Amino acid sequence: MSVNEFVGHFLTKAHHPTPLGGRNAKHEGWSNPILKRSDHTTLEAPQRRGRNLVETVGQRLRNAIAKGDLKPGDKLPSESGLTQQHQVSRTVIREAIASLRADGLVEVRHGVGVFVLAPQAGLQKGFRSVDSNRVSSIIEMLEVRAAIEIEAAGLAASRSSPAQQELIFECLDTMNRQIAAGSSTVESDRAFHLAIADSTNNPRFRELLEAIGQQMIPRSLLQEEDVDISPPDYLSQIQSEHSLIARAIADGDDSAARDAMRTHLKGSQQRYRALIRRS
Length: 279
Fold this sequence. Notes:
Pfam families: FCD, GntR
Distance between the termini: 6 Å
Structural class: mainly alpha
Low-confidence stretches: 1-50, 122-126
Mean pLDDT: 77
Organism: Xaviernesmea oryzae
Region (Disordered): 65-87
Domain HTH gntR-type: 51-119
GO molecular function: DNA binding; DNA-binding transcription factor activity
Number of helices: 11
């Protein structure tokens, strides 16, 4: 079953979820004016046409790296410098850098800058082989994510700091705003899962997820330019599942966190398997 055929089924078979949930009242008012946000820089809601600009800037930077204009170890211009160079907003630059970082092309060093990484062979290349024309290939990727992220959620519940938990909730808030605005949530969804990986305080979890690349979020295969074509009720269902994961982590309940992540990722697998059976 091709992705194009899948879209038709997807738009008509979405679940009817519980309403969008914000954070638990227990976690309201978590803003920390002195918290320095880490390199999760995809959290601002993009403008409706921002996706095209993100992809354009990202491709320019990828081309510069591929041609050797930007070599391993080179430092990219500052955010303001890239903004002026490409004549786009800071949000576009942040999302483009986040995309490069997710694909293992650059490294963000806090307080220093963004640096080009040496090409990585083997594991990362293998994870990029998701076939967007085969729903079964997407399921394979989701199974790998489940093996990684269920345990990551449990460790995050046991080890995360208040600042890391706050970042997870910021990702939730960003997705809520983007859903309300009709903007794509793909990048902020990925930022949510990477924030959980970071909250394990074991860098290998982030490395494994970043090795999967942009296709870590299957909806990226169904996105039309900067518009997420997923039905609102489907996005609401996903967001409800995200909220349960975040609350369990913030409560320090490692068992509930694992269960919530298992429900989330196994549910995605079941939805895609149902499409295969109907095809």
